[in-house]
Amino acid sequence: MTTHQIIYLSRFREKPTEEQLTQLLHQARSKNHRLLITGILLYADGRVLQVLEGQEAAVRAVYSAITSDKRHHQLVTLVDTTVPQRVFPDWSMGFTVADSAEYERLTGYVNPEKPLFPLPRAHNASPALMQLLRNFVALHPVLA
Hints:
blue light photoreceptor activity, 28% strand, 5-stranded mixed sheet, alpha+beta, 4 helices, FAD binding, globular, 36% helix, single chain, Alpha-Beta Plaits
């Protein structure tokens, strides 16, 4: 069975409270577990980098719901491709909070006041991006 992967960046229109973020995370994990989707969500100061991976129809359905969610804006799809295997096979949704400097270093995002993220859209996740994500996760606790 092939694995489909979508990686995107977005911003919340309004920064969620810790309680709202926790509720959103629990809902996402439950839905992802049911749909056999794995991945990780990095959150920093209202900004999101998320990796979704699984069966293509399920990943596209979840991503479609995210793109329709009015809480998100400035959404940029970085990767939308088939991959040989999952990068985060054990997580229905790994989650970690980064500070703004770490997030900027990870995403290449320099100025929070700019209307768009300057990362180029990619057709395939580069091994360097995947390794950067793995390294980031290795250095930061994934919150339950």
